[in-house]
Design goal:
alpha+beta, Lysozyme, five-stranded antiparallel β-sheet, two-stranded antiparallel ribbon
Length: 363
């Protein structure tokens, strides 16, 4: 179905609904929607959100034009899109009009008007993310352009030369193998695919990358992480040092997260447990291992994890990982970025595996 709303093209999926529509009173906050979402509704959320995030990262399907906003429901199902009018305030008003329309026609059972500073419901995702174009980010990882390659020395290892710089993919592999040969890491080899996905999403391999919260470098290391790795200021952007630090942090997080994970999800089939643990380990890198551990152990936060553990046969590993985050959105500083991160990394891993057939840990 196509229609025009205030001069903005709107495309909606067609669902059965009353022809006349009805008035719908808004809820006060999107958190009310989260609180009202039953745990069983996490079935299929990983695949649904992955589809939407792929559109954003590849500028495909409904994000083929970047001046659009996608609307989706609490099960991460696509509802439609709006073409931006231009000014943020006008866009926000039109999004809220569309939210009300979706509620009136019973495409959703609740709606929340958003503001420029506060999310609403149905949830909205902007297609305009020019720094997150996956094909270019993967090009940087595989060293498609010579300018993306590197060489140097770090802590007793030498990677590439000035005449023959190597790709970021090769550099990560060499640092990993050097540390493994020296007995300084016990991480499994499939960690290489995790690092590939992370560096692609974190920075695309850009040495001077800087996040809005102050994380720096190709691995987007926070000040606390840099301190944990004892990286002094002259070396904090050194790409080999960043890779080395990321390996250290992943191993530290694995050691800290594993006991709580085994206690909560130890009954899962080995392959599913391994997949879920890897996702939570990726999430711990982004959100902090203490915060993710709390989702498994803290009595005020672990109700979703307890439910998913009891009914694990009904959910994929991805559904469980996202469900634990979704049902705690707004708590412990967990926001939508945390929801997207593990999905984006999984998409990036698949993209890297398509380009590098020998990458360890590929599906």
């Amino acid at each position: 179905m196509k229609c025009l709303l205030s001069g903005v093209l709107v495309i909606l999926i067609t669902l059965s609904a009353p022809a006349g529509g009805r008035e719908s009173e808004p809820l006060s906050s999107w958190r009310d929607v989260v609180m009202a979402t039953a745990y069983w509704e996490s079935q299929g959320v990983h695949a649904n959100l992955k589809t939407i995030r792929q559109w954003v990262l590849t500028r495909g399907a409904f994000c083929e034009e970047m001046d659009r906003h996608i609307l989706f429901d609490r099960r991460m199902r696509f509802l439609g899109y709006l073409t931006d009018a231009g000014r943020r305030t006008v866009n926000q008003n039109q999004i809220n009009e569309q939210r009300l329309r979706l509620a009136r026609t019973q495409k959703v059972d609740a709606w929340v008007p958003g503001t420029l500073d506060q999310s609403g419901y149905p949830f909205v995702l902007s297609c305009h993310q020019p720094d997150a174009y996956l094909p270019e980010l993967v090009d940087g990882y595989v060293g498609a352009e010579r300018s993306a390659r590197l060489w140097g020395t770090w802590d007793g290892m030498k990677v590439g030369t000035q005449d023959q710089p190597v790709s970021l993919h090769d550099a990560i592999g060499q640092v990993f193998q050097h540390r493994r040969a020296a007995g300084r890491t016990g991480l499994p080899e499939h960690t290489l695919s995790v690092l590939a996905g992370k560096v692609i999403i974190e920075s695309g391999g850009v040495r001077e990358a800087l996040s809005p919260v102050g994380a720096i470098g190709i691995m987007q290391l926070s000040a606390a992480a840099l301190d944990d790795c004892r990286l002094k200021e002259p070396f904090q952007l050194h790409r080999l040092a960043q890779i080395d630090c990321a390996l250290y942090l992943l191993e530290q997080n694995q050691r800290n997260l594993e006991p709580a994970f085994r206690e909560r999800f130890g009954q899962l089939p080995s392959r599913k447990a391994e997949e879920l643990f890897r996702m939570l380990l990726v999430q711990a890198y982004h959100s902090g291992v203490g915060r993710i551990s709390a989702l498994l152990t803290d009595e005020s936060l672990n109700r979703p994890a307890r439910y998913f553990a009891e009914h694990s046969d009904r959910f994929s590993a991805g559904d469980i990982a996202l469900g634990m985050i979704y049902h705690n959105l707004g708590r412990e500083q967990l926001g939508f970025a945390a929801l997207y991160y593990v999905v984006d990394v999984s998409i990036a891993i698949e993209a890297a595996c398509e380009r590098v057939q020998t990458l360890a840990g590929c599906p």
